[in-house]
What does this fold into?
Amino acid sequence: MNNVTLPDASGYFGAYGGRFVPEALMPALMELEEAYNTYSIDPSFALELEACLRDYAGRPTPLYFAPSLSESLPALQVYLKREDLNHTGAHKINNALGQCLLARRMGKKRVIAETGAGQHGVATSTVAALLGLQCQVYMGEEDMRRQAVNVLRMRVLGAEVIPVKTGTKTLKEAVNEAIRDWVSSVNDTHYVIGSVVGPHPYPMMVRDFQSVIGREAREQFLALRGCLPGYLVASVGGGSNAIGLFHPFLGDPVKMVGVEAGGYGLTTSMHAATLSLGRPGILHGTFSYLLQDKDGQVLTAHSISAGLDYPGVGPEHSYLKDAHRVEYRAITDTRALAAFHKLARLEGIIPALESAHALAFLEDLALVCPPGTSVIACLSGRGDKDMDLVSGHDQVLEG
It folds into this structure.
């Protein structure tokens, strides 16, 4: 098998992936895999999803040439894939539509989700409202504090937001609680995982639903420039927007960089750079790189961005790292904040802090690329949700 055709029949991307879950969840995962294999080749499902993406989510999203940002990075011609212009303000709606439509075809009346930055929770709540599904969202108390606006949006949409008070009160603990719920409710409930993580078939299924990003970007760039871009750049927490952009280009001679959260720096313990400093292990039902101590205990992750604050990563990213097909780099909180302000002032676009990590890396890329290098950067979401957080940091810096 090659990069494009993975995972294998057992759900592995090389050594990574698989299905490491309690016995009680195996029937649900088998049912989900069978349903996905059936409906993913059903023309009526494809037409229904395509119509929702077009008429409800607002696709295709633009591929925008950023002239002022490019002028500030003389070696680069920067194009932004504007996932922030989707309904609900992020790429998460692509996957939420796919999974909730699938859940309805499976006869499920209830969906649950976990969320860190809140964008996946908002997207799932939105689609649940659209399709008349009961919806509950697990969210760490710390993330609820950081993303209060998104908590309100979920509640307005009719979802119940369940605060998670254990551990670091962030995404990892929210996933734990969602899995516990699912174990006891598999008969009538579908768990809408928001990234390319978790047991098979989730990493494959979420990737496929998010690959609309890369398919559109590839077609749009070819139409604009008559060639392929030199680079693709995207932020990586669990890794859904990155794999969505990268996957349709894996067979092409295009360089790719995934940008992790470097937090306070890689020489500290306050980061979420799983692929840069982690090692393989099992977390949330899949074998992949994760942050762990010498005894295999999962370490606490840190990022200014709630969406990147996760100690694991999707198994396909682990495979692509080991295969040297994608390069993974880390950007600190401070540099991400600077990139957040830079894009706002140069282009009039306020990016999500997740996306700001990818934008900050463009400064590094500009130092090593020949003039005229073209780059597509994924603007995975808009920054409205991060305004209070950014304001707080700015006030600290202004002293």
